[in-house]
Amino acid sequence: MLSPIAAAAGRLLISEPFMPDPNFKRSVILLTEYSEAGAMGFILNHQTEMMLGDILPDVSYSEIPVYMGGPVAENTLHYIHRCPEKIDGGIEIWDGIYWGGDFEQIKQLITNYQLTEDEIKFFTGYSGWTPGQLDDELREDAWIVANKFEADAIFSNNEHNLWKEVVISLGQRYAHIANFPENPMLN
Predict the structure, then answer these.
(1) Three-state secondary structure string covering 82-102
(2) Quick check: 166 and 156 in contact, CB under 8 A?
(3) Residue 165: pLDDT above 80?
(4) I need a labelling partner for 170 at 20 to 30 A (CA). Which of 11, 48, 102, 103 fits?
(5) Where exactly are the transmembrane stretches of this chain (predicted)?
(6) CA proximity to 5, closest of 144, 98, 112
């Protein structure tokens, strides 16, 4: 098994370098839920072409990018943030990283330029697994689990390099796969 670390809420899932599912190609996912009932998370490095203003035209500050959280319920909007002092009601899923919170408060903060893209990240849809499905995928080496990462990486807008940076940060055991070509036929 590639990953000796168990999956849990607040951990990262890093897709194996040759993930065949195009939804998860070179993905880094923040798990927000993990239990016997299944798992849920958001892809951190698949930015869509949409900005928040495209989805919420009543919000004047539209320069915040929206990411594809996953292929499930793509018509829903989700968010994580790291500013509980500004947003009430969020659930802490990792040290200083929160999921959800008062949406009306968020819209007001954005409209008043008091919330920036390095404090909050929006997603359409989410990544979800039925009971036991993620555990099966972990046994098949489809994912590496990471429990040590910088919050700045989560809110980075450098999505093109995030997968590689996270893999390298896991240490020498994994660093070599960061340079694998996306298409193994090109190796």
Answers:
(1) CCCCCCCCCEEEECCEEECCC
(2) no
(3) yes
(4) 48
(5) none
(6) 144
